[in-house]
Structure formats: structure tokens, C-alpha cells
Amino acid sequence: MKKNAGVTLPNRYQQGVLDAGCDEAGRGCYAGPVFAAAVILPEDFYHPLLNDSKQVSAKVRETLKTYIEEHALSYSVAMVDVDEIDSINILKASQKAMHLALDGLHIRPEFISVDGNYFISYQNIPHQCIVKGDGRYAHIAAASILAKTYRDAYMCQLHEQFPQYNWYANKGYGTAEHRKAIEDNGLSIHHRKSFRITPSQLSFFE
């Protein structure tokens, strides 16, 4: 048990086993892939700034990313692209991304802890869904950091090709600026066509 910004974060939900924390990033975005990460931490893992990726700055996330990659027993990051999101829907795509991340671990977990309230069983490994788990357990927080930093870097690369949407700043989320850019420029190949984001539908999000 380690203290983090006044909160005690156990490293694992299931103690005494190889427990992989899982989380995704980008599920609610208008554009870009959905990313997911799986992380197995050592029992003595600790960083004083580790928290849910939404609760720390971009600079701190980058520091944590490096620390997690250097100290995790195993970690993996995966993505599912826009075409597949539109084909199978974002919920299934998020689940697939988490399964792909678990596939990438070089250590097979004995238990899986997932942020949120829904998970499709993976290879008959027992799991637990934990609402707001990225702020309650270090291994899920670490997964949230990796998923977020990898996705943000990817969206910054896409920004170079499509600067009119300013994905460097909004990372594909439905900000007012992004919605205005869609009104002015239409949808790009990286926008999720299955989402209600065309100009005639933008009022849906008001």
C-alpha cells in the first residue's frame, strides 16, 4: 500500500498473484483509434505522482510513462483503428484493444483488473471490473497512463497531416473548437463515421 496525493493506492486488486491492470483511452473521441494498455507491476512498485491519467498533467504523464516502462514486470499497449471502430462499434473495439494489450504481455497474468464496469473474459483468466479503478489501484492507474500517453502521441502525429482539426490540442475529443473545425472542413478519414459528429448532428452533443 502506497500513498499517492493523499490517497492510498494498492499496487494490485488481487494480492499474491500476477494481476494485470487494464484501461483504455479514447473511447469517447470523435477521431482516431482507441488505445488500451495492460500492466503487471512488481509488489514494491511506487511512484509518488502515480494516479488516474486524467488527474495529472501531460508533463507528469510523460514522466510516469518512462518510470512505468522501466519498472513494470510486463506492459503492453495496443490500438484498434477507426475503420474497425466503425465496423464493430466502440464498445467492442475497446474490448478488443484490451485483449490485444493482454496478448502483448510477455508474462501471462493470473488475474485481470479492469477499469470500468464491463469486460469480456480473456482466456478464462479471472477478472474484476472496478469503477474508477484508475484512481484506486496503481496497476490500473499505470495502464491508464500508458494508454493515454501512447494515444496522445499518435494523435499528435495525425495532427501533422490534418492540422485544421488541431488534434495536437484536443486529441480528437469533441471540444467546441473541434466541432467548429468539422463544420468548416467536414470529416476526415480519421473521424469515426459511426459517431454522431456530422455538422447536422452536432446539436446532439450540446
Automatic annotation (TrEMBL):
Manganese or magnesium. Binds 1 divalent metal ion per monomer in the absence of substrate. May bind a second metal ion after substrate binding. It is an enzyme of class 3 (hydrolase). One of its GO terms (molecular function) is RNA-DNA hybrid ribonuclease activity. Its EC number is 3.1.26.4. Its main location: cytoplasm. The keyword Zinc does not apply. It holds the Pfam family RNase_HII. Residues 17-206 form the RNase H type-2 domain. A divalent metal cation binds at D23, E24, D115. Endonuclease that specifically degrades the RNA of RNA-DNA hybrids. This is Ribonuclease HII. It comes from Niabella digestorum.
